[in-house]
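Go through this pair.

…
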Amino acid sequence: MEYILLREAALMCRDAIIFTPPFVEGGGGGETKQAELVGRKAVDRDIRRIFVPKSDKARVNGMMMLKQMSNAAKQRDYASFVEARRMLSTSPVRLDSLIAYRIVNDGDEMRAYKKAQNFFNKATVVRMNPPTDNMRQVHDQYLFVTRGSRKRFDKSKLDFTGRYFVNSKGELNSYIKKRQEEVGKLKSGWWNVLESLPKPKKKGVEQNFGRKGVAGYVKNFPGENAFQFAVTTSDTVKINFGNKIGNMNGVASRNNVERMMYANAHKRIYNDLRQMADRDREKFNSGETR
């Protein structure tokens, strides 16, 4: 029984690593290098959705022209609005706001004007976000996690452009790289538990359940976040294990990690017991056991 429990503890830790985000496309595979690439790509995408380097002239110019158009709409200056919209529609700029894009490209000028008045008058923030030297503070302030554990920005707290200027592309890339290095941190809590567990022995040889194929990015965060203790007596085996970061921000709860861990363990133990019963029955029927 001790062998089975220690094996299951290790495999449950592995399951937690698999089911904690990030996953491969389509789900699962959370222990693989492919999942790390998915996570790093998501970090890059999410950060670029909110920060714009000053050297990105297409976006910067688009934001400045959009500001001019919003002022004209709010001040009910139709002539200035028409001119600002014309500049936006004929200049090589990029607009990240879908509503603003539709206003600029609406074929009916008066309808576009009314749309702009409605949109910009409802904007809670009428100024443009100032340049920032502290991307992490801004990033953490506006980031939230959806029920599906995908990270999104709360754009209701931003201005209508939904972007912040940063000093340079190099500064932005450096920040993205730094945040990408955190991919796998929540999974690592379970790896640390797995490494701390006693290994089950079969004929005196330690078995490495749960460890094979776990990518390096899961192992990059050693720390004192794991706990486990096992008690074995002549008729009882108990083991308690867990970690302090695996459910940070409720990520594990939202992804039903605990439920899937127990479901898989229950299935494995049931199959073990059934095989043991089948083996004993065959021995009895063959006359080996009387």
About this structure: The longest helix spans residues 257-285. The two ends are 24 Å apart (CA to CA). Residues 37-180 form one domain. The mean pLDDT is 83.
